[in-house]
Amino acid sequence: MTTEPVEEGRPTQAGPAANLIAASVVVLLGGVAIAGANSFGEGPGTWPMIVGVALVVLGLALAIRARRDEPPERFTRDSLLVVAAVASMIAFVAVITTIGFEIPTVLLALVWLRFLGRETWRTSIVVSLGTVVVFYALFVGALDVTIPHLF
Known about the structure:
Blueprint: H1 16-40, H2 46-64, H3 80-99, H4 102-116, H5 121-142
Helix pairs in contact: 1-2, 3-4, 4-5
């Protein structure tokens, strides 16, 4: 396990154990997805089950390769962006059934583009609104998907 920067400007490496920890997290998430899919039953639970099984298989593949792969970078202050992205997605899922997908989708896209992606305000607003219009037209209008929506 090295603490020296690999190249100037790059964070230090975390070591091979970090690969194994990351693989374990992926397997755990897959297991949670499988358990959740089972609670939905056949039909609605099919897609989450497929995703859960894929996560478990990929996590196990990562675990097998943990020692041979290049060690990942250590967590830094910039790693908190990932935490912010996950937290915003959890908030999105928590409110979408209550107020529909339009407002949470605009806010999620705006936060991701402006604050996580550091895009300009103009780009963030235009793309966020455009995303909702396209999603609405596709899922509600064209595919008649039953998702919570305001209009």
